[in-house]
Amino acid sequence: MADRRQVLRLSALAAGAPAVLGATAAPALAGPHPHGPGHGRQPSLVIGHRGASGYRPEHTLASYELAARMGADFIEPDLVATRDHVLVARHEPEIGGTTDVASRPEFASRRRTVVLDGVTTTGWFTHDFTLAELKTLRATERIPQVRQRNTLYDGLFRIPTFQEVLDLRQRLSHELDREIGVYPETKHPTYFRGLGLELETPLVRALRRNRLDRRDAKVFVQSFEAANLRLLHEQYKLRAPMVFLTSASGNPYGDPRSYADYLTAAGLRELATYAGGIGPDKNQVIGRNADGTLGTPTGLVGDAHAAGLVVHPYTFRAENQFLPADYRVGADPAAYGRAIDEQVAFLRTGIDGLFTDQADIGVLARSLAFQPA
Ligand code: G3P
Ligand code: CA
Prior knowledge:
Largest sheet: 4 strands, parallel
Order of helices and strands: HEHEEEEEHHEEHHEHEHHEEEHEHEH
Bound molecules: SN-glycerol-3-phosphate, calcium ion
CATH superfamily: Phosphatidylinositol (PI) phosphodiesterase
Helix content: 25-40%
Structural class: alpha/beta
Distance between the termini: 14 Å
Strand content: 5-15%
Number of domains: 1
Oligomer: single chain
């Protein structure tokens, strides 16, 4: 009979193929707040990061659909604006790295340099294109050197609008007979506001139009800018739960407070007045030792739970180069390592969910995390 390590290895092999595994829906969270901290009582959420971006070009309908079919509880669109103020799903406004725009002579003159959150950036930007123009482009794999298989799909899929993502969510929820959540992120909200293309108005309109601006909606609105969440809470009166994303260092753009300031006991209590959770870099939940191996839990999960906040760390990826040194297998940075074991270790800290590029691995890790050894 296979011991647990063999089971995990076999599972990792199975997870390497883009097969559709059985869906494991997490039941609605109990307690006073529908998205309150799990404290280990509720199954953690599997959030399909940029869809199933480990298997398809990110932020395409094909990527989101695969994540949902693999059992993800939520699909995660990052949102930016077009020149005609439509929200589309891209990780950043620059689209040279995730579309075929560079090969389109008709758009060659659109290439330019902007200062994006203080960083000089050259390329093609969503805010220089109408939606109709963007729709002529096709998505491509962001990291072909790591995910060569995904280049199979280059050129097949268009850039989706946020509404198209919501329509897909609704269709799949009916078909799969479980509600698929949506976890939209406002990308560079201060930058877009400066262009006269603020993200909040079309975001809130879309959520309301789709009856998703409710406290118990299967929605988390996320941002790396706390001020953006505050604005959504205070001015836009958003009712859907929100999550503040944190980096392991630095400050939110334009904010005198550091991410570390927000994660003190006082900072977390204040966050809880307008947000329902935090989305930390996974290294803020379990740090790395000096040699790159996985360290010990930091205590952030308990601190956040004490403030009434859920904890959804990012980003779990199966390839060696994204894993702690002691979870890698072999020397190829693009080969899969012991990603299931890594996620099990994190799930046992009491996190309430995780963002992963390989939703099937997240579902499997969740099923294994609390089994007797
Ligand atoms: O939103 C969680 C995670 O996606 C944050 O990182 O850069 O992949 O959007 P990023
Ligand atoms: Ca994101």
